[in-house]
């Protein structure tokens, strides 16, 4: 004979008297992330996993009340245009300026450090490396200042 609480929630280990009570708990709990579009509900571990599922499987923008897109490519373009999404790593930014700054991280590193073998995306990043003392070179403060002036003139 099953115990009074024979139906356990796999995620939070709570017990329920019936399968329907457990199902209602999963559907209504803030600790569970359910796709309400799929015919068979699945409990995702995080809000991000659910978000990714809804966008990839159902092509629905989770940020605005727009009808579903026909393809994931259309949804991606919408996210880039309307929600400041980085097309490379799929991170979202509230402001376009933040996205522009972020895009630099994906740029090719082709600036050689003046003192070691490291490569940088921008000259200012290389200068920060020198100023921070993380370079093995013997560049002194005077040299770094001159290099900085030279970089900002060009």
UniProtKB/TrEMBL annotation:
Record Gene3D superfamilies: Classic Zinc Finger
Domain C2H2-type, chain residue ranges per copy: 7-41
GO CC list: nucleus
GO molecular function, one term: zinc ion binding
Subcellular location: Nucleus
Taxonomic superkingdom: Eukaryota
Residue stretches spanning the membrane: none
InterPro entries to which the protein is assigned, alphabetical: Znf_C2H2_sf, Znf_C2H2_type
UniProt keyword terms in alphabetical order: Metal-binding, Nucleus, Repeat, Zinc, Zinc-finger
Name of this protein: C2H2-type domain-containing protein
Organism, scientific name: Fusarium oxysporum f. sp. raphani 54005
